Amino acid sequence: MSRAAVARASGNPLRGTLPVVITVVVIGAIGTGWLQKEEEYITPGSGTGYWLGIYGSVAMLSLLAYSMRKRFKSLRGMGSVPFWFRTHMLLGVVGPVLILFHANFKLGALNSNVAFFAMLIVAISGVIGRYIYGKIHMGLHGGRARVKELLVEAETMRTELGQEMQAASFVSRELATFSKGLDKRVPRTALGSLRTGAIIAARTRRLRVNVTAEARRLIRAEAKRARWSWSERRRREKRVEEVVRRYAAAVRKAAELTFFERLFSLWHVLHLPLFFLMLLAGLVHVWAVHHY
């Protein structure tokens, strides 16, 4: 990620604080409701409990708005995609919490139990999807990271290393050999990406140790010939260590990215059918409640 992107991501402290606050509030509300469930202040069939079920169902149904906003050109003037994405996440939290209170944290008839567990599965799936999304995007709905961009960054670091230390041509050559062809053999499956990522992670750790050790040896030999001071020698060692560390991190990130991209594609295939199954179960539950 560029420095400008980092600055944008870290410019608003609320972006990091707000999710924590929401998480604490939600956990506190659920904990309070669970402890009070035996008092039966709320019942599903009437009063506040009934309306909580209505509001929760509307919130879950409204989750479709985000997908519709992305897919239909006629809706593109209705707010930005980041706004709808945040709204989608908020409704995905509020809806299940309202349904939990509607049910008073208890199981009921078969149709209500099916609807309840379908909702829980969709909610858990949404949390997993948000985690994967964060792995392949730079911040909340930020620009999508690309494997090639990360590898270009890694190559830039390798070039910097060569400029910093002409005597360390071995180091530069090792990094060039390591990165050659990494962007040409991208696995087509999530399992293949996971296997490749694990192999690359192990190789980069080994590369970092070996290259850093060789770099230190070359620097110390050059320092002895050029009669550098201890501080000058140490400065160059730290510079090399930092560049090699960043290079290895960029390569690992590129390998990780391919895995999460494949995983996100699989998640999309699974999440939408689960969502419609939840809607169907909810409709059956509402119909059963009002006809029996």
From TrEMBL:
Regions crossing the membrane: 16-36, 48-68, 89-108, 114-133, 269-289
The organism's place on the tree of life at top rank: Bacteria
Keyword annotations: Membrane, Transmembrane, Transmembrane helix
Name used for this protein in its record: Putative FAD-dependent pyridine nucleotide-disulphide oxidoreductase
